[in-house]
Structures are given as C-alpha cells and as structure tokens.
Amino acid sequence: MKFPAEPFKIKVVERIKTTTRKTREKLLKEAGFNIFDIPAEAIYVDLLTDSGTAAMSDNQWAGLMIGDESYAGSKNYYRLEKTVREVTGYEFVIPTHQGRVAENLLFSTVCKSGMIVPNNTHFDTTRANVKANGAKAMDLPIAQALDPALDYPFKGNMDVKALDKLLERDRSKVPMVTCTVTNNSAGGQPVSMQNIREISDVCKRWKVPFFLDCARFAENCYFIRERESGYDKKSVKEIALEMFSYADGCWMSAKKDALVNIGGFLAMNDGELASLLKQKLILIEGFPTYGGLAGRDLEAVARGLIEGLDEDYLHYRTAQVKYLGESLDRGGVPVVKPIGGHAVFIDALTFAPHIPQSQFPGQALIVNMYREAGIRGVEIGSLMFAEKDPDTGEAHYPDLELVRLAIPRRVYTTMHMHYVAESILKIFHEREKMRGFELIYEAPVLRHFTCRLKEL
Ligand SMILES: *Cc1c(COP(=O)(O)O)cnc(C)c1O
Fold first, then answer.
1. In terms of residue numbers, what domain contains 186?
2. How confident is the prediction for the chain on average, in pLDDT?
3. Within 10 A of 12 (CB to CB), how many other CB atoms are there?
4. Nearest CA, atom 3, ligand 1
C-alpha cells in the first residue's frame, strides 16, 4: 500500500470546531489579518507548527503517573539518561525544558565574540543563540538546497568542501561544527549518512568538535533507510546509532521526534564540557537531574524517544506528509520537492504570480486558507524576512516566498490532510481572486508575530 493507514487507534478525542465563513472573516479583521492572533479554538486544522503539538500515546500518559518529583536523582531522570545513551551512544545527558535552552547553554559556553559556527542551515533559535554570544552563524547548505523545484534525495546536506575551506582559513575561530537533522530551515530535508561521515572526517582532520541538532533525527534516519544505498536492511535504531557515532554530541528539542509537548536535552562524550554546561544549567534551568522539567515530563521524553523510532510509525508519519504534498502537486500547486519530513511548503510566488513580493503573496495564501477552510499555516517569506536598508529605506526581499504546512505528529488523520488538500486546490483554481496586503503596523523586531495588515 502506497499510503499506510494510521498505525494506532484513537482512545481519547478532542473536539475541534467548524466555524462559519462569516465568523472567520470577522476574526481575521479583528486580528489585523495576522494568523498568530486568531484563537486556536477557532481553527479547524492547525498546521502552524509540528513543535510541541504531538499527541502522546497511552504509554506516555501512563508514564506521567509514575513521575517521581524528587528534587535530585528522580528515577525518571535515570530512565531518560539510559534511553538517551541507548539511542545516541553518548555518555553524559543533560535535560533542558526545550531545545533553545540547550542551545543557550552550549553556545554561551563555547562561543566567544568573533567566532564562527558553521551549520548546514541554522534553525532560527540556533542562529539567535550563536549571534547572542557574539559569534557568526554561517550556513553551508549544498547548492541543490536552494532550488525549490529540484527533486534531490538529500537536500539537507552540508557543503563539505566549503566547510573544509572555512576551517583551512579560520580554524582558530570555529569552536564547533554543527549539523541539523533533518534540515528544518531548508524544508525538513534529510542529511545523508555519507554527508555526516564526510563532515565528521573534516572535523577530525581539523580537530573541531562536531555536534548534531537532532530535533528530527528519527525522520532523518528513516529517510536514510529509504533513500541511501546500503541502509535498506538496517533498523532505524541502528542507523541512528551509526549517525550519532560520527559526532561528539547532540542537542535535541524533544518537542519534535520525541513526541512530547515540552522537553529537550544535550548529550555528549566530553565530560569536561558536560560539567561546564551543568553549572550553567543550575543557574538557568534547575538541578542537573531535572533541568527545568517535572519528573513526569522526563518520563514522557524517555518513552517518546523510543516510540519516535518505531518504524510503522515513521512509515505512516512520512507518508502522511507526502500524501498532502503529492495531492497538492497532482493538482498543479507548486510545492517544494521532494516533500520533507515534517511539512509541506508551497511556493507562493508561483501560486499567485499577480501579487508582488511587496504585497506578501505568502500571507495572502495564509489568509485565504483560513477564510475559506479554517486552516492555519505560516508564512515564511517577505512578512517574516524582508529587511529595509537602514540608509536608503529600500526593501530587500527573500529569494523564496513560502507557506509552510507543518503536520503535528499523530494528531490529524489522513482525511484531515485530504480536506486540507481539497481546500487549497479550491483556492488555487480561483487564485486570480486573491489580493495582496499592506502593513499598517509593524514592530521593530520579529514583526510577523504582531503585525497588522490591510487587504488591498
Ligand atoms: C525546534 C527546534 C529548535 C528549538 O527548540 P525549541 O524546543 O523550540 O526551543 C532547535 N533546532 C531545531 C532544528 C528545531 O526544529
């Protein structure tokens, strides 16, 4: 079967509301056409993010009941430590309450002003944490990653030659090399084992530590099994262990592949670095055996890590995202290819060519998806990224105007995906009716969260 049925049955349900078009129009007006200001209760299918939105299993909920809330040495911490060691092979495990705190601890420890941290593509919070510590966040994606229509199996890869050149020139400025699996900011595209091995070789040659930002490591390893020769007979768990063996450590936002609503950790083999990180952890998160989480949450992360590696689940998970992507593609909607691990990206410039970048074509699609069908996605284009030149006032637009439909894990059925595809196809067929937008309020930073717009 090309698209497997869900490998679970549903034991608890959460009612979601359908609203009328009139209500949605009113809510859009009140929100200044900013989708972040629409109450989640008024959304039918919410594809804003796959982060922290997973449905936990009965096994994870049962785990919450054996939460040991001792301040120090909770049994759930030891279970998490054992699980992370089993999955990654790393010795030292430091829990945090989410991924960005792990990044804060790590980069405030290894970065000094003037340093450079390379990554295939930094995720937003990673970039912000590197920059906040005075270092430069350098993206080294492969050239293929920049062409949205190109179907290439490992578009998440790093340009290893560029990494080698950087180290040849600036070895003393690079405290650590990092790689994001899957490459979130490049569309949830996977990184191949060969690429990870090559990054690792370069790092060993230049004696630089190598860390993985492994929020979606299970999805990445599943793609390796599906697409890379030599891996089709290996289990995803074996593939993950091999992948981690090429790096010196990792950090994870457990809100992705560990199937929890909150949690994260760092893991590594360098005991000295681990003890520095733990000192800071006590300052900003808590004692090293809970790191800003309740004991019950540690248990849910430990159980979720194992469930996230389940191959029936990963088969269904990646196929569901692909189902949505292929349904849109078949109907002529321009989508980024190949379909990534956690989201489908629509190329809004091609979708609505009559709306110029200065009038936010991605946001126009976002608004229409909500108005027509109660669906929420997120714009990743001019509204999020366009920058005004401080001297001339001229606007610089990003290369791509994307709309991201991120799929929460185990939350929506494939019939919901069918509904999303049909709704977007309807908008696509009437796309010349779509109108652009004008900003009427913007904050000086991260304006997309709070801006207000007017439909033209
Ligand atoms: C989500 C994410 C983070 C940040 O994690 P939070 O849990 O949101 O703080 C870091 N890196 C990647 C690749 C992510 O997807």
1. 58-307
2. 96
3. 8
4. 99
